[in-house]
Amino acid sequence: AHSLAGFLFLKAMAALLFFAMMCPIWCGPEVAALKRSIKKLENRLLIATWQVEHLQRHKYFKSFQPAGFNPQTVVDTDSADQHDKMWHRNTCEYFYELIQFPFFNNLHLSDCSELFDRLRPQSGFYRIRPNMHQEPFLVYCDMDDGGGWTVFQRRRHGRVNFNRDWVDYRDGFGDFKLWNDEFWLGNEHIYSLLSEGKNLVKIDLMDWEGHSNYAFYENFRITDENDKYRLQCGQYSGKAGDALSGGSGMVQQWSAALCGMQFSTKDQDNDRYLQGSCAQENEAGWWFNRCHAANLNGKFYRKGKYKAQYDNGVVWGTWKGLWYSLRHTTMKVRPLLFLDTGSGAGEI
Ligand SMILES: [Ca+2]
C-alpha cells in the first residue's frame, strides 16, 4: 500500500509538472479572459460601493429642481413635451449625481462606446479622453438607441444661445449637467473625438409634432484649427435626406453643400459667400457654403414654421425645408464597427 501511494504521488506530481509546463500554451486565452472578467467585476463592485455610499449619505434621489423648470408656468402641453418632463423629473437627479462620479475619472475612457462595452451604465455625463495628450472632458453618453454614442451637439428648448464667436465654438459651450441640456462640445474636442479610426455619425431630428427622423454619415471628420475645422463627410444613409451634400440639384449642391467647407462664426468668415457672412446672417457657427441646406446650430424658433429675413432657423432642408425650425436635434458618434444590441435607427 505504501509503495502504491508513493507511485500515485509521483504520477500526480509528474502530471502537475506536465500541466505547469504546458499551461502557457493551453491556458493563455483562458487566463486573459479570466483577468478581463475579474476587471469587469471589480468595476461593478466599485460602482456598487459608490452607489451604496451615496444612498446612505445623500438619500440618493435628493430633491433637485433644475434651473428654469417650473411646472406652473409651462405653456407647451403636447404629449411629447409632457413625456419629456415626466421622464426628466424621474431621472435628472440620477444623472446629476453621475457627474460627480469620481471613479470614472480614473478609467481613461477614449469615448462612450468603450464605457458602454466595459460597464453598460445608463445614459448620462461622463469624462472621456480620446487623446492621451489632452485633458479629459465631460460628454453626454447616449447609452440607449443601441448604446455607446458620444453626443457632440444637442438642441432641446432654445435656452442656450448658439450665436457665439470662434473661441466659444472651438472650446465648447452650453450646459453639461442634465439629460436635456443644450451644448456644442467644441470643435477641438470634436476633432479629437472624430480623428481616430472609422466612425458613424447619427443625426437625430424631431419636429414640433413629435415626429422624429435621422441621418447617418460614415467617416464623418473635421480637420484641425489650422484648416478651420473643415468638414469631411462619408457615405450617407437614413430617412431625413442627405442635407449635408446640399440636396438633389446641381445648383443647390454648388451653393449649399457643407461637406468640404470650413467652419465659420460671426467673427471668422470662412464661407464661400463673397457678399457677406453666412454666420452673421444665420446667427450661428457652422460649416457654411453660400450658405447651407442644413444648419443645426441655427436660431431656435418655437412652433416650427417661421418667417425671417434669412433662413436662419434650426434647419434640415431635405426633411422639413429651410423655413421650418426643428425642435430637437442631436449629433452623436460611435465607432463604425460597433456590436450593439439595437438597430441604431430608433427614437431619439
Ligand atoms: Ca463670406
Automatic annotation (TrEMBL):
Keyword DNA repair included in the entry's annotation: no
Assigned GO CC terms: fibrinogen complex
GO molecular function per UniProt: extracellular matrix structural constituent; protein-macromolecule adaptor activity
Gene Ontology terms: biological process: blood coagulation, common pathway; fibrinolysis; liver development; platelet aggregation; positive regulation of heterotypic cell-cell adhesion
Keywords: Disulfide bond, Glycoprotein, Secreted, Signal
InterPro entries, per the entry: FIB_ANG-like, Fibrinogen-like_C, Fibrinogen_a/b/g_C_1, Fibrinogen_a/b/g_C_dom, Fibrinogen_CS
Domain of life: Eukaryota
Compartments reported by the entry: Secreted
Organism: Cynoglossus semilaevis (Tongue sole)
Leader peptide range in chain numbering: 1-27
Domain Fibrinogen C-terminal span(s) in chain numbering: 103-337
Name this polypeptide is given: Fibrinogen like 1B
Record lineage: Eukaryota, Metazoa, Chordata, Craniata, Vertebrata
